Amino acid sequence: MKTKIAVAKGDGIGPEIMAAVLRIFEAANVPLDYEYVEMGKSYFDAGHSTGMTAAAKETIERLGLLFKGPMETPKGKGVKSINVTARKVWNTYANQRDFRSLNGVDTVFSKAGIPINLTIVRENIEDTYGGIEHLLTNDVAVGRRIITRPGSAQVIRYAFEMARRKGYTKLACGHKANIMKLTDGLFLETFYEIAMEYPDIESSDIIVDDLCMKLVSRPEIFQAIVLTNLQGDIVSDLCAGLVGGLGFAPSANIGDNISIFEAVHGTAPDIAGRGIANPTALLLSGILMLRYLGFTTAAANIENSLLYTLEQGIHTGDFGDKAVASVNTETFADAVIANL
Amino acid sequence: MKTKIAVAKGDGIGPEIMAAVLRIFEAANVPLDYEYVEMGKSYFDAGHSTGMTAAAKETIERLGLLFKGPMETPKGKGVKSINVTARKVWNTYANQRDFRSLNGVDTVFSKAGIPINLTIVRENIEDTYGGIEHLLTNDVAVGRRIITRPGSAQVIRYAFEMARRKGYTKLACGHKANIMKLTDGLFLETFYEIAMEYPDIESSDIIVDDLCMKLVSRPEIFQAIVLTNLQGDIVSDLCAGLVGGLGFAPSANIGDNISIFEAVHGTAPDIAGRGIANPTALLLSGILMLRYLGFTTAAANIENSLLYTLEQGIHTGDFGDKAVASVNTETFADAVIANL
Ligand SMILES: CC(C)[C@H](C(=O)O)[C@@H](O)C(=O)O
Ligand SMILES: CC(C)[C@H](C(=O)O)[C@@H](O)C(=O)O
């Protein structure tokens, strides 16, 4: 029996990279069925304020799992990112991003011989992402930052469970509780409360600025880090930079009822439709999704094949490494399939 | 005639590194006179809530310039960092940190052959650093983030002036105005308003998460970046990591009436009093101070000597590079003096 999931192809290069990834899934005999949903910039433009049709929302809520391509944030004052809205609507409170060095993807760190292998778990709903702001006068803007104990607890618990599942021995909490004593203080307090339930995982905390300093000098000292939303956003992208950029980092938005697996890079309108986009981040997100669904053998099979393909120097044009001959999206997918 | 400045030796390793730096200044015939002020953790412990005596405050306000060693943040709920209080009390609204690769100081980036040379200007007073927070319930913490137009304008103007003075051709504004549309929106709007007065400096803006991704992969594309307080704090430490850590990065807190030049690393109580601490960050801050005072020849002389000393492999024990023989603080200072 196949598991059915919702698929939103995304905007720009979304449909091309989604097609490539699903073709790889098919070749690997992944037991999935897809229900395509109407979601993205064009649906926003057609009057759906959340960027999706009612039918799309119903389908996603029924199936509980959405695999999505990148979506363009509509322009305009007061308009919210479709990606961020989706995370919020379904309370996908934990954003997990796995960062690891990929052989064949050159970075400053690979050149220095420093392997990257760490996971960031970011709180995905609270903090300044509530968008509660006002202009007190024309010259004074006030924003509110809200951190709650249950909101912190659910993402921190997820991080500990994930650490355990991955066989990690430690989890760090990144924060700025020396300045934001009550808000980040509450997050940190909750972290240590929940840590007591996980004596097998060594828990520690680190101030976020110090964390960033260490991530760019000794990233190998970390296994997993849990943070509040905005700090987690910044640290996630920093870590993406360590492994080659957003094109090489998967992302999962985990909730109790609905989870979303997505590529977090842009929609690259400049190259959309040309069939040359890099499907790696979406494929990595797909692999994360397969593991989440329990299809561990298929996940490992595809992952090994992807890693080997990259190692062979088979790259799409955006790898930045101009010395290597580049292939288009479909040829890249063909190579991954051939290596399965 | 000599210029008189206030000097606070700092806590922990502060007195040792300050002595070394002032000895180098003397050998370089820097025309400065010092008035030592009572400021630091022990003065806080003795009942001075700001960490300084009334006499210290008076002296600093009279002289307008404070050269300070690191100071320990007193423990306890509601207690503020002495460093942060000092910045606030005197409205030192711009925090400037210059980051450059130092030959002889190995980092991931030096190993990859990527030279670092950039300046971060951070707003130093506003944002969540106001410490306006409350617990709405035991489970909900609310913090307020305040950004003002005049507060933004003064630091942004400083950044443009600094860029011009340094001969930079561009200045970027880092922000998260896609999420914090009003607060960071106000900062960004102010940036572009002031940019119009500096047509010789190319202005651009970049979302802070993307900025961090680029800083760890292509730092050479930036010359100077101006940011709000907390984002600037995070990005400053990230950049410190690029050049070897806080032990190798100078810091200036600039205000209209009072400016503070300080080492922003810790007080290293574990090695305090042993004469082995690294005076490089304080010396670099001192060099920045000499330039600020217009003593450009002395600044260049000391700087060249420091760079040459580091390049020779003369290192204190904290460089992390265990292969190189390490010297103590005084021997390091002697070497800098010999190279003058
Ligand atoms: C596009 C933006 C609103 C979003 C965020 O800040 O969460 C992005 O940076 C991300 O990390 O997915
Ligand atoms: C110690 C801490 C309060 C301080 C800050 O956040 O400003 C430090 O990180 C700095 O950058 O000087």
Automatic annotation (TrEMBL), chains A, B:
Any one Gene Ontology BP term: tricarboxylic acid cycle
Domain Isopropylmalate dehydrogenase-like: 4-336
UniProt catalytic activity: D-threo-isocitrate + NADP(+) = 2-oxoglutarate + CO2 + NADPH
Requisite cofactors: Mn(2+); Mg(2+)
Enzyme Commission designation: 1.1.1.42
Keyword terms of this UniProt record: Glyoxylate bypass, Magnesium, Manganese, Metal-binding, NADP, Oxidoreductase, Tricarboxylic acid cycle
GO molecular-function terms, A-Z: isocitrate dehydrogenase (NAD+) activity; isocitrate dehydrogenase (NADP+) activity; metal ion binding
EC supergroup of this enzyme: oxidoreductase
Highest taxon of source: Bacteria
The keyword Magnesium is assigned to this record: yes
Function description: Catalyzes the oxidative decarboxylation of isocitrate to 2-oxoglutarate and carbon dioxide with the concomitant reduction of NADP(+).
Protein family (similarity comment): Belongs to the isocitrate and isopropylmalate dehydrogenases family.
Quaternary structure and interacting proteins, as annotated: Homodimer.
The protein's name in its UniProt record: Isocitrate dehydrogenase [NADP]
